[in-house]
Design goal:
The structure holds two protein chains of two kinds. Chain A is an alpha/beta fold. In chain A, 40% of the residues lie in helices and 19% in strands. Chain A has a six-stranded mixed β-sheet, sandwiched between helices. In chain A, strands 2-1-7-8-9 form a five-stranded parallel β-sheet. Chain B is of the alpha+beta class. The chains are: A alpha/beta, B alpha+beta.
Chain lengths: 365, 355
């Protein structure tokens, strides 16, 4: 398959791994931001190809994992209302809320539907004028334009039975938060290629400058990730800190301008809570005043749901790259994809699930 | 879109509490994955406990007057009812015939029970029945008994079919999921994922350059051809719900062995690969309805593979892996990069990823 096979070619991957070995003289701690990248690293065992000194730690870029518990609880509460059809991306359905998940709500009779695109939710609203259709609009900058488009389309059509339950997060403020944290160990970042396809590389310039930390925008195939690691190692070994783009076949400096415009038309930047991490100022998106009619939080008067999460699992440290999933005593024992303690064990992009699915044999040894 | 706050943020260490034990049936309990296994283990096995059931193969084999009778049952709830490469009628024959065939049995008789929702189109019912008849005739089995129930509008989803099958196991044939031994080879009879992706594409209205067709087919003649050559076939399974991964995990668990797959040897059609990439699915977990997996002792494996390849349903067959002493109860896969990963059994259905 073109644009895939050449980026999974084992000869190219091995050559890159050999070059990384040659270029490395000291230990370095690198973080891949995106859960999709973590998934590739585990699926192909890329860390086994790296020299021992290169440690890859896994970042907070799993949209399902960082969606706050309150949002999951709100979605479940909405789904259980008989007048509501709740539409969601597939992998949100198994994420545990305080007491339930959307799959269980569905089993109790809630009308929960999976969509591949938020515009499908708009279509469902059009077809069901007597029901209220709520789309669970979560994710990073990657899903924000499509979610914005759904609100824009609903407004243009004058739909009155459609709304978004919004929980959007942004990558650059999260990197900033990680860098200013006293416990930070990360010396270089692989920035998320899909997010940058939308936003461009330009947002990352100030992070490189402010923290003198190298950032390489990377893709999602094995060759992409190894090449991004090599680019970071070369910079670190040379004492440099620059912004580089490995994922040139998809990412430009300016990004997808029309996508950014529709985001800016519908959303504005706001403070946001990240599950497992906590509140990060100006790190999320909320609907603008002009789109208040499409805000499920307002339309349904859900109130402030406050939930206390007991410090049972270590997903907070995992999402900050401070610990590996296998450092958790519950990993694979009390915490499995069937009975997840935390969201990173649920989504295929979650670091714990990636370790569980692909790495148990290594753990067992 | 960036922020200017450089003050250190206090991270809250927080994580959700575990959810209470499952008290309702979830869709995942029907996925053929871990939830299904849990349901069988916790609810059905304790209730019906007996040595025949305890084998947990695709069919029961019972001794009646010196004859080994194979019996199996399967319910069909596929949506849409008609899909490229088949429909619920032909599938109801193939599914049950294949479950008999995986025990090495010659399928003989079927029952067919129809649960129909009030208001269902008579014309569609005729089409389904005709297709079921044609598939049974082609497979050489007779539908000898049946049942009809009509449920109120809204109490069923159009049409469900259950078929039960009976067949005879020839002398000397002994296939069971607990017979895999280290050193055995894993034969896969052809490309994987075709059925599941054909159904998904039809259901979601996804279009590809060329249509992906379900592989739905009766496998008993292929099985007979395989049993006809010299070679010790330990076990056969058709990787339906839950896909190749669930089937191999079951065998690894039942035989207490490891199974190592070689990723580059897996036959996957380009269209199916493309669809899986697009939807964020792994073909190893996608359903098949016309493929089988055979665990074969190393001595006769080439003869068995040749027999499979000579059959029209096995032209793309490959040896895709080896049974190992290591990693007992686990299925692993050697990637093209030379690294190894676990091929896990899924908890429930595969969920499309957000991005």
């Amino acid at each position: 398959m073109k644009y895939l096979d050449e980026y999974r070619d084992h000869r190219i991957a091995r050559a890159l791994a050999a070059e990384i070995v040659q270029s490395t003289t000291r230990p370095w701690v690198l973080m891949e931001i995106c859960g999709g990248q973590t998934h590739t690293i585990m699926r192909y065992g890329l860390d086994e190809l790296l020299p021992r000194g290169i440690e890859l730690v896994h970042g907070p870029g799993c949209p399902v994992c960082v969606t706050p518990l309150e949002t999951v609880d709100k979605a479940i509460a909405l789904a259980l209302r008989p007048d509501v059809i709740l539409v969601s991306y597939g992998d949100m359905l198994r994420v545990p809320g305080s007491h339930s998940d959307l799959f269980r709500a569905k089993a109790q009779g809630a009308d929960v539907r999976i969509a591949y695109s938020p515009t499908e939710a708009v279509k469902i609203a059009r077809q069901n004028p007597d029901r209220k259709v709520v789309f669970l609009a979560i994710g990073f900058e990657t899903t924000a334009p499509a979610n914005a488009m759904a609100a824009w389309q609903a407004k243009r059509e004058g739909l009155t039975n459609f709304s978004l339950l919004v929980s959007h997060v942004l990558v650059p403020p999260a990197i900033r938060a990680l860098m200013v944290s006293r416990s930070n160990r990360v010396q270089g970042f692989i920035a998320p290629g899909h997010v940058c396809t939308v936003m461009g590389c330009k947002e990352y310039e100030s992070l490189v400058r402010d923290f003198r930390v190298p950032i390489v925008v990377g893709g999602f195939e094995p060759v992409d990730i190894l090449e991004a690691v090599l680019m970071l190692v070369r910079q670190l070994e040379a004492g440099e800190a620059r912004l580089e783009n490995q994922y040139v076949r998809s990412v430009s400096y300016q990004g997808n301008v029309p996508a950014q415009e529709i985001m800016a038309e519908v959303f504005e930047i706001a403070d946001q809570k990240w599950r497992g991490i906590g509140p990060i100022p100006q790190s999320g998106l909320r609907l603008r005043k002009e789109y208040a009619a499409y805000d499920a939080d307002l339309a349904f008067d859900l109130g402030e749901m406050t939930v206390d999460e007991p410090a049972e699992c270590i997903s907070a440290q995992v999402l900050q790259g401070l610990k590996k999933p296998t450092d958790c005593a519950a990993f694979g024992m009390r915490c499995t994809p069937e009975n997840p303690l935390g969201a990173p064990m649920v989504s295929s992009e979650g670091a714990c699930a990636a370790y569980y699915h692909y790495r148990r044999h290594a753990v067992a040894k | 879109m960036s922020t200017k706050t450089d003050a250190e943020i206090k991270f809250e260490l927080s994580c959700p509490a575990p959810l209470p034990v499952r008290d309702t049936i979830l869709l995942g309990h029907g996925s053929g994955g871990k939830l299904s296994a849990e349901l069988i283990r916790d609810v059905f096995l304790p209730a019906f406990q007996n040595p025949v059931l305890a084998r947990l193969d695709d069919q029961a084999i019972v001794n009646v007057n010196g004859q080994r009778l194979a019996m199996t049952t399967d319910s069909f709830v596929v949506k849409p009812l008609f899909f490229p490469g088949g429909d619920i009628g032909s599938l109801a024959v193939h599914g049950t015939v294949n479950d008999l065939a995986m025990g090495g049995a010659t399928p003989l008789f079927l029952s067919a029970a129809f649960i129909i929702e009030e208001g269902f189109s008579m014309e569609e019912l005729r089409r389904v029945v005709n297709s079921l008849r044609a598939a049974a005739a082609k497979a050489g089995v007779h539908v000898v008994t049946g049942d009809t129930k009509v449920v109120e509008k809204g109490k069923g989803d159009g049409l469900f079919i259950n078929t039960t099958g009976i067949g005879l196991v020839p002398e000397g044939v002994d296939l069971s999921a607990d017979r895999a031994r280290p050193g055995d080879k894993v034969i896969l009879s052809g490309s994987i994922g075709d059925h599941g992706i054909a159904i998904l594409a039809q259901r979601e209205g996804l279009e590809f350059e060329t249509q992906i067709e379900s592989d739905s087919a009766a496998l008993h003649t292929l099985v007979a051809a395989m049993l006809g050559v010299k070679g010790d076939i330990r076990c056969m399974r058709d990787p339906t719900r839950g896909g190749v991964s669930s089937t191999l995990n079951e065998i690894a668990e039942r035989s207490q062995v490891g199974i190592e797959l070689v990723e580059s040897s897996l036959p996957i059609h380009e269209q199916v690969r493309g669809a899986c990439e697009l939807l964020g699915l792994d073909p190893l977990y996608v359903a098949n309805e016309g493929k089988l997996i055979a665990i074969v002792a190393p001595e006769g494996v080439d003869a068995v593979l040749q027999a499979v390849r000579r059959h029209p349903l096995g032209a793309e067959a490959q040896i895709v892996g080896t049974v190992t002493k290591e990693n007992r109860g686990l299925v692993t896969m050697r990637t093209p990069l030379g690294t190894t990963r676990v091929v896990d059994m899924l908890a429930g259905d595969q969920l499309p990823r957000i991005c």
